[in-house]
Fold this sequence. Notes:
Blueprint: H1 9-37, H2 44-62, H3 65-76, H4 82-100, H5 103-126, H6 129-150, H7 156-164, H8 170-192, H9 210-224, E1 231-235, E2 241-245, E3 248-253, H10 261-278, H11 295-309, H12 313-323, H13 335-342, H14 359-375, H15 383-395, H16 421-441, H17 444-447, H18 451-464, H19 474-482, H20 489-502
Helix pairs in contact: 1-2, 1-3, 2-5, 3-4, 5-6, 6-7, 8-14, 8-20, 10-11, 11-16, 12-13, 14-15, 16-20
Amino acid sequence: MDSKLIQHPIIIKLLEKYRILWALNHVSALAHWDLETYMPKEGAKARGEALSKIASLSQSLFLDKTFVDLIEQAAKETGLNEYELAVVRLLKRSLKYYQKLPPEFIEDFVKTTSEATVVWRNAKEKSDFSLFEPYLEKIVQLARKKAEYLGYKEHPYDALLDDYEEGLTTKDAQNFFDSIKNPIVELINYVKNSKNFKHEHPLEHEEYDVEQMKKFTEKLLQFIHYNMDHIRIDTSSHPFSIYLGPGDQRITTRYEGKDFASAYSSAIHEYGHALYNLQSHEDLHYTPISGGNSVVIHESQSRFWENFLGRSKEFIKFFYEDIIKIEKAIGKYSVDDIYEYLNLVRPSLIRTEADEVTYHLHVLIRFEIEKGLIEGSIQVKDVPKVWNEKYKKYLGVEPKNDSQGVLQDIHWSDGSIGYFPTYSLGTALSAMWKHKMEKDIGKISDLLKDKEGIKKIQDWLKKNIHQYGSTYTFKELVRKTSGEDFNIKYLIEYLENKYKNLY
């Protein structure tokens, strides 16, 4: 291994052994991507079987005595640099995971979630929760088992949160939501009482040609990214981004034929994830610290691009001539009309299409339901009812069907219980990055006036966040880059300044 960042002989030896595990992860990620994009529905059972066996093989290789001894030997070494220490930290984290979870549990979990993803897609299309309910019941049971195997100090949900964000606890997440809830609710009330408040925008109802929208999405990505040989974009039921390896990043969006903001924002959001992985330092390729391990940092990148760039008037101006070519009817709307459309604040049903202000209440609802499912205070059969009640309570809206409600997200079908809070935490972190970036290189609104300015944004993100991959934990990187601890004040200040001015 030829690396300037990683030079200690024991770490190099460790990473040479790890390369086989990396290859299995690569193949598994490719199979997951295909499952979401091109695999025939009837292939679900076989794909689940294959993925479960790959997961079991990865576990057995990880627990091979030679590899475990190398990890333990590396952990005792002195004089390791920050990158080498991070390799050991993440391998020890994975080792704990594999040592505590029985092989048959991992196989069952992977097989169940692989099949459940296809069932969820079908249930969503038919808007019928009953089709997905038995799978969710089993996934929740497996998640509870997982928490018991992994262990926790105060709440079983802690173990699942930690799986996505190192060290995150239920208490941390609860304190975060408690701190942002009142300012968010007050701002929503301010907007609703404004004379400029609207329940809808005519652009939401404008239909568009899907093929034209696909061409626009590709053109947008070709413009903002400096090497499209890195990226492939496809269509899926729920937009996602998956990193297969150096120079191979897959992203998806969905095209519904109207309300183009959904496809537009999803593509930009997923690009934020993609860029983080692609700009990891080349010396970290094929190591466990390449790309983003912290989901909070990852979501801070996707939400940064979606909100601070994609929703900005400057970005809209840049692509206005292309936007109005998506559909003739869209041509009658001005830049200001589209800006208003992309920044409309109002209670709504769909998280991925929510505005910047109400978005956090969507995530809070999911946090409360997941916590209830894991502790047993909410039963799976009652989830649609609880979901609808919480939407009525927090947002004053109620889903008309399961597709608009409990079936809208893919996360539970793939077993990602514990992921949702990172969306809101990551959004708050993105506001900190914006503050620091603008202090360092100038206003984002000025940088968005040309392609050179967009490259400056990408370079700042690479220098301060991306190049490190997973070298630092979320809290460590915040302190290193911003010089202070994680703080919600930047999010609240940004939202209040922007939306009190708009409304």
